[in-house]
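Subject: Sanity check before I submit

Could someone independently write out the structure tokens for this chain? I want to compare against mine line by line before I put it in a report. The sequence has 67 residues.
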Amino acid sequence: MLKDYDRGFKIIIAGSQGVGKSSLLLRYVDNTFSGNMLSTIGVDFKFKTITINNQKVKLQIWDTAGS
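---
Independent answer below. Compare away.
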């Protein structure tokens, strides 16, 4: 399988419960916002591909449950 990106990074969003980690992730990846987010159970992740200096960079962003 050929990669469709030049670089890849895994990013973990960590913090206390209820501070907006999931909202931050959704806003950055999907450009959406919800004022009524449910608490994350375990972990969730999303992908986003961006271009930096003419290179495709694939971000795998992990959202952890804060506790």
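---
OP: Matches mine. For the report I'm noting this point. The two ends are 38 Å apart (CA to CA).
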